[in-house]
Amino acid sequence: MRPDLATALPSVGDFDMGGVVGWGDLDDCVTKSDSPWFTGKHGFVFSYAAPLPFVEWLGRLGFFEVPVRALGAAGVRIRHEIAKAAAVEKRRSILSLADRGMIVADIARELRLPLAHVEHEMERVRREVEGGLFTPALLPIENAALNG
Length: 148
Hints:
Blueprint: E1 19-30, E2 43-56, H1 73-99, H2 104-111, H3 115-130, H4 140-147
Antiparallel strand pairs: 1-2
Helix pairs in contact: 1-2, 2-3
């Protein structure tokens, strides 16, 4: 362990062992990273990671899945967080394509979403912009006009 990170971690006797302490989606395995937590030859990159209250669970070597329903109340929270993260990612993808000038029908086709879903999301964004709750990204030409 890196000496500068040793004080950031609890001592071995100060935390529970033999259970689930968090969840996340494993996205990548990297051989270099700017993260101060990266040490050794390999590191795992997680998205949507979040801590959970400790749930006792028998482990094993390698990666394995824990059924969400087996985690009780923590499992309910996980299901909610997964649904929320998926909705945010879907909205980000829709807005990213719209910002590039893609029309709604093409966005639906590109993301393999029902046209009505994309139309509904774009309508929500329109209402949020009108209500001052959301500021869309400027198109490159608008940025140039403001900064040029």
